[in-house]
Amino acid sequence: MKQRPFTAVLIVPTGIGASIGGYAGDAMPVVRAMAQVCDRLITHPNVLNGAQLYWNAPPIHYVEGYALDQFAAGLWGLQPVHQNRIGLLLDAAIEPELRLRHIQAAEAAKTTLGLNLTDYVVTDAPVGVELRTAASGASWGTIQNEGTLLRAAETLIYKAQADAIAVVARFPDEEPDDPSLQDYRHGVGVDAIAGAEAVISHLIVRQFQIPCAHAPALSPLPVDAEVSPRAAAEELGYTFLPCVLMGLSRAPRFLTTPSPQGIWADSVDAIIVPANACGGSATLSLSQSQVITVADNHTQMQVTAAPLGIKALEVESYLEAIGVLAALQAGVNPLALRPEVSRLHCIT
Question: Is the separation of the CB atoms in 10 and 297 below 8 Å?
Answer without folding.
Answer: no
